[in-house]
Amino acid sequence: MTARKEEVGPSGLASALVEAGALQSDWLPSYRAVPRDMFVPARVWPGIPAGTEQSHVVDRDTDPDAWLKAVYSDIPLTTQWDDGQHTADEIGTMPTSSNSRPLMVFSMLADLDVRDGQRALEIGTGTGWNAGLLSHRLGGENVVSVEFDAEVAKGASENLRNAGLSPLVIVGDGRLGYAGGAPYDRVIATCSIGEVPRAWIEQTVTGGVILAPWAALYGGEAIVRLTVDGETASGPFTRPSAFMRLRQHRADFPAHDTYLKGVAWPADGIRSTSALSPASVRDWVVQFAIGLQVPGAFWSVERSDEENPEAYTLWTYDADSDSWASADYEPGADSFEVVQSGPRKLWDETEAAYRWWVGQGRPDFERFGLTVSSEGERAWLDSPGNLVPLRSA
């Protein structure tokens, strides 16, 4: 290992992760034995520590110092755009595979709380780094990783082989888990889900743990840590997150014109005003709290006032294309114009959800939890018996 690599390399990142409380002592040997640089391709688009933005491409062949600095920084690295259809240096439309932020990787591994000899199932192999860490800790014979994209799986398998690690990498639909390796003591997803697949619960032993980034359609996301008890799994959210969606859980949103049905705004909408600013419902935890209560709703922002670029319209839609709401944001305003159409009064639901969140003391992610049973999923606050209310079914 060169002096330059030591300067910006694994030691500095390890120190930062230990100081942040993410990298625990029991994972240090695996961190050292499974270096991140062995699991990062030559071309990556570095991200930012918090958020989903990417910077321009960094190429190891043309700028090895910048590449190494990116690899040993606490940032996510996008490794694929648009399911591999975009290969240019420019940023693509949608990031679809990555090497996750190290702080999140080791925070989740700490949440997973593995024990020697346990079997683990990973959903979303990506570059293979997380599977490699698990394999070093548990033994490759005890780790199965499922990746939907065959090319991504091929690259991960090569990385793992070059690192001397041999988990079982399966190309398949992550929702189905992998029954051939079940039962598992631990299941970890490195992609976001909108609901917990039944197969994961069925393939996990009673007392086992399922750890996954979970998000309602509306937005916000957090890591949920579920303990399996027969056909039921329940547990708290542990921390906020922002992962790429499991491909089969990606939303296919109807187009804006589908809701207005070819008629100019406000169409058949009913006008009103609200004291709640649209800006108040856009924070990550607020989106999360609203999404738990307002199922099947999503939102977008439209900016059209060139003279007032900070002004915008917050549009809220239901996934069934029957209802919509618009709320106009003006900086400094005390009242905001709202228009609602359809059987669901989506802004009323949003406002009620926000007021509930405020009334509960503005809870952060860690106060929420989730129970998954044969009857579906229900979120709760503080304890499983205190269900989060649903504003519309």
Automatic annotation (TrEMBL):
Protein's recorded name: Protein-L-isoaspartate O-methyltransferase
Lineage of origin: Bacteria, Bacillati, Actinomycetota, Actinomycetes, Kitasatosporales
Q: What class of enzyme is it?
A: transferase
A GO cellular component annotation here is: cytoplasm
Molecular function (GO) terms for this protein are: protein-L-isoaspartate (D-aspartate) O-methyltransferase activity
Localized where? Cytoplasm
The organism's place on the tree of life at top rank: Bacteria
Family in the record? Belongs to the methyltransferase superfamily. L-isoaspartyl/D-aspartyl protein methyltransferase family.
Checking PANTHER family in the record gives:
PROTEIN-L-ISOASPARTATE O-METHYLTRANSFERASE, PROTEIN-L-ISOASPARTATE(D-ASPARTATE) O-METHYLTRANSFERASE
Per UniProt, which keywords does this protein have? Cytoplasm, Methyltransferase, S-adenosyl-L-methionine, Transferase
Q: Which EC number(s) are documented for this chain?
A: 2.1.1.77
InterPro entries recorded for this chain?
PCMT, SAM-dependent_MTases_sf
Annotated GO biological processes are: methylation
Q: Which Pfam families match?
A: PCMT
